[in-house]
Automatic annotation (TrEMBL):
Species whose genome carries this gene: Streptomyces brevispora
Name of this chain's protein: DUF5753 domain-containing protein
One Pfam family this sequence matches: DUF5753
Residues annotated as domain DUF5753: 108-287
């Protein structure tokens, strides 16, 4: 099977590199330069700039600085943001984390590698408890339903992967998570009453951690703007300028990488937060639903 242009030899297109390349492309076009003119700044061929703009190669700091100067990008904050993004991408490419050998699904490897270096995660879920908050029993119930009978041995591997991901919630520099969950996800009987009650109790315990915020969008809120599907916003800087959005479907994974597009999802998430219950009231609702779970 032929390899795509985005994954040939040493050229591997990554989400972070594509985001950085896209920003530099926008600056180049605004400056009225073509790829050959930009490449002359680097004493290179136009092909190098093309590879950079498509995220096929890691970025060297001197190249980023030289291109910014050529494009007239003189804001220290902007240049610093691009350099941080380049550094994150280089670290991401070098990373030999546990997910490299634990996973066969390339799209999931990419997401977990991004999650591993992110500072903050904002997640919206309609039908399920967020993966980072799931108990092993809840995970198994989901995995058994998703895996075909002839691949049932994969269930424990899938559970192990998700449990390892949850390590990011602890430690010296834990991932900060803000989750908004539709009430339906709290009431859907995954694994039966006992499993769901334990899951909801676990969710309440997590909500007490300083790096975790949980809000519930109740049924009574009516029509909401996030009905299109679940999504995750990963942030790699405090400013939000380096955000990417991840949406995982049944057969495909989609990344929203442009600054304008990711900002639209950030705004959508903020509006959903505003119509959801406060963290305190959300916790009270979760506790009430958990108590109502009968064997």
């Amino acid at each position: 099977m032929p390899k795509s242009r985005a994954d040939t030899g040493n050229r591997v297109s990554t989400v972070l590199a594509r985001q950085l390349g896209g920003q530099l492309l926008g600056f180049r076009e605004a400056a009225g330069l073509n790829q050959a003119q930009a490449a002359a700044t680097l004493s290179a061929q136009a092909a190098k700039v093309a590879k950079m703009e498509h995220g096929w190669v890691p970025f060297r700091d001197p190249d980023v600085i030289a291109l910014c100067q050529a494009y007239g990008v003189d804001s220290p904050d902007t240049v610093d943001g691009l350099l941080k993004l380049a550094k994150l991408d280089r670290e991401r490419r070098r990373a030999k984390g546990w997910w490299v050998t634990s996973l066969t699904q390339g799209s999931l490897r990419e997401y977990i590698a991004m999650e591993d270096v992110a500072l903050r995660l904002q997640t919206w879920q309609l039908a399920l408890i967020p993966g980072l908050f799931q108990t092993p029993e809840y995970m198994r119930a989901l995995a058994v339903a998703a895996v075909s009978p002839d691949r049932i041995d994969e269930v424990e591997r899938l559970v192990d992967v998700r449990l390892r991901r949850q390590r990011r919630l602890r430690g010296d520099n834990p991932l900060r998570v803000h989750a908004v969950i539709w009430e339906a996800a709290l009431r859907q009987m995954i694994g039966g009453p006992r499993v769901m009650r334990q899951q909801l109790e676990h969710l309440c315990a997590l909500a007490d951690q300083p790096n975790i915020d949980v809000q519930v969008l109740p049924f009574r809120a009516g029509v909401h703007s996030c009905g299109g599907g679940p999504f995750n916003i990963l942030s790699f800087a405090e400013s939000g300028a380096l955000d990417v959005v991840h949406m995982d479907g049944l057969r495909s994974t989609n990344w929203v990488e442009g600054a304008e597009e990711s900002a639209a999802y950030t705004d959508l998430f903020a509006r959903t937060c505003a119509t959801s219950l406060s963290p305190y009231d959300s916790l009270r609702l979760i506790e009430s639903i958990a108590k109502g779970m009968n064997e």
